[in-house]
Automatic annotation (TrEMBL):
UniProtKB keywords: DNA-binding, Sigma factor, Transcription, Transcription regulation
InterPro entries: RNA_pol_sigma-70_dom (IPR014284), RNA_pol_sigma-B/F/G (IPR014322), RNA_pol_sigma70 (IPR000943), RNA_pol_sigma70_r2 (IPR007627), RNA_pol_sigma70_r3 (IPR007624), RNA_pol_sigma70_r4 (IPR007630), RNA_pol_sigma_r2 (IPR013325), RNA_pol_sigma_r3/r4-like (IPR013324)
Record flagged with keyword Chaperone: no
Residue span, RNA polymerase sigma-70 domain: 87-100
Family annotation (Pfam families): Sigma70_r2, Sigma70_r3, Sigma70_r4
Name assigned to this protein: RNA polymerase sigma factor SigF
């Protein structure tokens, strides 16, 4: 760097090159205290590296390995679940990766404190989505459990199956809510579509129910999202639309966008995060 004083004296200041990141052969064997310190170093360097480079991938992958013990720690809370432990660890690792991608040292909070809610939330979402054969709202999932307990209690007391009004009175809810909960309970388990249809027509005996059911076009959801996003994107400021187009339309890196606009990569990252958060919140609110 060259500095010119008032007397027009040129002074050349030495430029400093960041020290290369330490090479860690097996990050999973690093002690917890050392892992915390190394994580700070890698997070600090990650913010200045360009996405897609070898150095960026090494820093990000090492952060995952350094903090995989946090996933194991959170997974122990769910050791009584019937799902395989390996599946829980794998899902929790997805939460860890999301936390790494969203963490900033400026938050002034330990990464483990920041990451645990992401990991735990991802695991709970996994349970919620896989335990039910059909996805239903959490309110109805909880109502199903209450109805099951109430049915068992009333059956012993009445020595018969309780009616809908009796269940409603016992739980202090309306009969309509009981009916809604009972219908939702049908989504907890599902029969196979491979069973033969049967019936009077011998031609149907060898055909499965799946043969009569059409498939949903996989592109349908993308079309719905596109239609919902178009007015939201159109309402964005010109620069935000330009950045979105360069990032996702032209598939430019954040560094390339920064060079094009004359700003830093970090500034581009902040603008993108702000724009995406804005779109996500409005898209969710309209759902």
């Amino acid at each position: 760097m060259t500095i010119t004083t008032a007397a027009q004296t040129t002074i050349t200041a030495p430029t400093t090159t960041p020290e290369p990141l330490p090479w860690i052969e097996d990050a999973g064997k690093v002690a917890p205290a050392d892992a915390r310190e190394l994580s700070k170093l890698f997070f600090d360097r990650l913010q200045s590296l360009e996405e897609g480079t070898r150095e960026y991938q090494y820093a990000r992958n090492t952060l995952i390995e350094l903090n995989i013990a946090v996933v194991t720690f959170v997974a122990r809370r769910f050791r009584n679940r019937p799902e395989p432990r390996e599946d829980i660890i794998q899902v929790g690792t997805i939460g860890l990766i999301k936390a790494i991608d969203r963490f900033e040292l400026s938050r002034e909070v330990e990464f483990t404190t920041f990451a645990i809610p992401y990991i735990s939330g991802e695991i709970k979402r996994f349970f919620r989505d896989t335990s039910w054969a059909v996805h239903v709202p959490r309110r109805l999932q909880e109502l199903r459990l209450e109805l099951a307990k109430a049915t068992e209690t009333l059956s012993e007391r009445l020595e018969r199956d309780p009616t809908v009004p009796e269940l409603a009175a016992f739980l202090e809810i309306t009969p309509e809510e009981v009916t809604e909960g009972l219908v939702a309970s049908n989504g907890y388990t599902a029969g196979t579509l491979d069973l033969p249809l049967g019936g009077d027509d011998s031609a149907d005996n060898d055909r499965a129910l799946a043969d009569r059911i059409g498939d949903i076009d996989p592109a349908l959801e993308g079309v719905e999202n596109l239609l919902a996003l178009k007015p939201l994107i159109a309402a964005l400021p010109e620069r935000d639309r330009q950045i979105l187009n360069m990032r996702f339309g032209q598939e430019m890196t954040q560094a390339q966008i920064g060079t094009e606009l004359g700003v830093s990569q970090m500034h581009v990252s902040r603008l993108l995060n702000r724009t995406l958060s804005h779109l996500r919140s409005h898209l969710t609110a309209s759902a």
